[in-house]
């Protein structure tokens, strides 16, 4: 009898949980908004959770199922999200009515200040003040000052490849090689620390970045758990980043500030701007904890996300000989015009290099979707003709599928084709090209990232040939574990010193 009672209790609890979960995924049905029928507990995320398809592709598929709708419903597990499809409405939300949607949904609570108090996680007026303070670190004049430092890192990269591979060539894991380059750039440009990760691949900066900032492993899992099950993170004390990582960055920032204060060193970077804010009687007051958070997110963004984008970039150039040859012609012309000493202005004026880079970011936007959080009531127009307007409340979530917009044949003919010429022929609409986001929440480091990528590719093709290897995976498939748009498997390419080059 006791066993029967136990089984009956388990059954009753199971039924209650099922109907509770079902009630959580009936939001859009009640509002009569187009949506994909969700699965209890999993919502529309089951294919991602069971690793059948990448997250950007799942959201993109939902986006494409209702071509006549301005927006649709999507269930992030049991959380309802409004997936905005219409470009005019996207601009209205992200730009014109930004004050109603000025925040992101942060993944981490205040128990981890380094991960929650950075520019991405800050909200409201605090975010506005920090953004205003840091923006001058990324102006064109500051980029020009950093240009020489980036070129030194690119020289270290290509000299290492030329010396090691020679005319015979060698196959490399490009993600690791490009992470070494991005590591060195961020270390010198943000922290004033000279690092050569090609001569010393075990330096602390690179080792920490490699083990910490990897979206195809633990990090994506931690993002998922912190985002959907915050009670578990508190119960089991699960941290996004270890105390060791936190201590490392805090020590670096503290020592950098101390040395600059003592010796009167001034550098064109964000740490300098934050140091100078201490002298102002008005405005934002920044302590070491907040300075560490900003420096951390800059390293975070510059290390893994940029190297991920670069993997797509070098893969496309290596697999498209016509693109590589055309790029090299443009590079050789600049080298000749500058007598072998390319300048900031010369590289920034390279139209085909720009087009190749932009087309890569169109085809493979690292941020496969953008999110916004409603902070003030906002009325959405009817999703479809004959529908009703919907009033969004504070706390409601908005998603914009960057990946879907960039692959929409209505905006990009043959969207899956790598075609840089579309950026030379004025065939691109700015409202549907958003690799770095849009509006005031546009990625603050986009100029820095673009310049870093341009310099890398310029120097690499100046000195090396990019070739396919037997291990090169072509065509590309997207990683099913990652939270961002990432290549599945290892990006293998064969590099060799150029047989002939214009010096």
Q: What would a concise description of this structure say?
A:
The chain contains 20 helices and 9 strands. It has helices spanning 2-24, 27-31, 46-49, 55-64, 87-96, 113-116, 124-134, 140-165, 174-191, 204-212, 218-228, 230-235, 243-263, 270-276, 288-319, 321-337, 344-348, 351-363, 402-406, 446-463; strands at 71-76, 79-84, 170-173, 370-373, 378-380, 390-392, 397-400, 464-467, 492-497.
Can you tell me about this structure?
The chain contains 20 helices and 9 strands. It has 503 residues and is α+β, with helices and mostly antiparallel strands. The strands form 3 sheets. A 4-stranded mixed beta sheet has the order 1-2-7-4. A 3-stranded antiparallel beta sheet has the order 3-9-8.
């Amino acid at each position: 009898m006791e066993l029967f009672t136990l089984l009956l209790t388990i059954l009753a609890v199971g039924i209650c949980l099922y109907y509770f979960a079902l009630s959580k995924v009936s939001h859009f049905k009640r509002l009569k908004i187009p949506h994909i029928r969700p699965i209890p507990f999993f919502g529309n995320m089951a294919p991602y959770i069971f690793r059948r398809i990448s997250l950007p592709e799942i959201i993109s598929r939902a986006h494409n199922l209702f071509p006549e709708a301005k927006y649709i419903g999507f269930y992030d597990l049991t959380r309802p999200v409004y997936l905005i499809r219409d470009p005019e409405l996207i601009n209205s939300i992200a730009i014109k009515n930004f004050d109603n949607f000025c925040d992101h949904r942060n993944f981490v609570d205040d128990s981890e200040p380094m991960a929650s108090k950075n520019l991405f996680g800050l909200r409201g007026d605090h975010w506005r003040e920090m953004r205003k303070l840091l923006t001058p670190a990324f102006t064109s004049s500051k980029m020009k000052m950093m240009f020489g430092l980036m070129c030194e890192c690119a020289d270290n990269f290509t000299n290492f490849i030329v010396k090691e591979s020679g005319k015979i060539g060698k196959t490399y894991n490009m993600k690791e090689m490009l992470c070494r380059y991005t590591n060195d750039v961020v270390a010198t440009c943000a922290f004033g620390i000279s690092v050569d990760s090609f001569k010393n691949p075990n330096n602390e900066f690179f080792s920490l970045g490699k083990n910490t900032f990897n979206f195809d492993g633990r990090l994506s899992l931690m993002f998922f758990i912190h985002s959907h099950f915050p009670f578990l993170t508190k119960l089991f004390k699960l941290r996004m980043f270890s105390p060791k990582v936190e201590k490392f960055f805090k020590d670096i920032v503290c020592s950098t500030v101390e040395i600059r204060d003592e010796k009167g060193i001034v550098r064109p970077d964000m740490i300098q701007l934050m140091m100078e804010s201490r002298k102002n009687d008005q405005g934002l007051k920044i302590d070491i904890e907040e300075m560490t958070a900003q420096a951390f997110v800059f390293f975070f963004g510059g290390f893994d996300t940029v190297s991920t984008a670069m993997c797509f970039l070098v893969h496309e150039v290596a697999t498209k000989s016509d693109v590589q040859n055309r790029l090299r012609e443009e590079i050789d012309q600049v080298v000749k015009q500058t007598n072998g000493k390319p300048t900031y202005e010369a590289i920034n004026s390279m139209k085909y290099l720009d087009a190749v880079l932009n087309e890569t970011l169109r085809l493979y936007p690292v941020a496969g979707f953008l999110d916004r959080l409603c902070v003030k009531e906002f009325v959405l127009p009817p999703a479809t003709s004959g529908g009703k307007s919907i009033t969004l409340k504070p706390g409601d979530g908005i998603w914009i599928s960057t990946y879907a917009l960039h692959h929409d044949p209505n905006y990009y003919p043959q969207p899956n084709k790598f075609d840089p010429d579309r950026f030379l022929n004025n065939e691109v609409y700015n409202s549907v090209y958003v690799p770095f986001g849009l509006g005031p929440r546009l990625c603050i480091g986009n100029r820095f990232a673009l310049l870093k990528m341009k310099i890398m590719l310029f120097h690499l093709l100046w000195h090396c040939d990019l070739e396919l290897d037997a291990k090169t995976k072509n065509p590309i498939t997207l990683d099913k574990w990652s939270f961002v748009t990432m290549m599945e498997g290892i990006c293998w390419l064969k590099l060799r010193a150029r047989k002939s080059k214009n010096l």
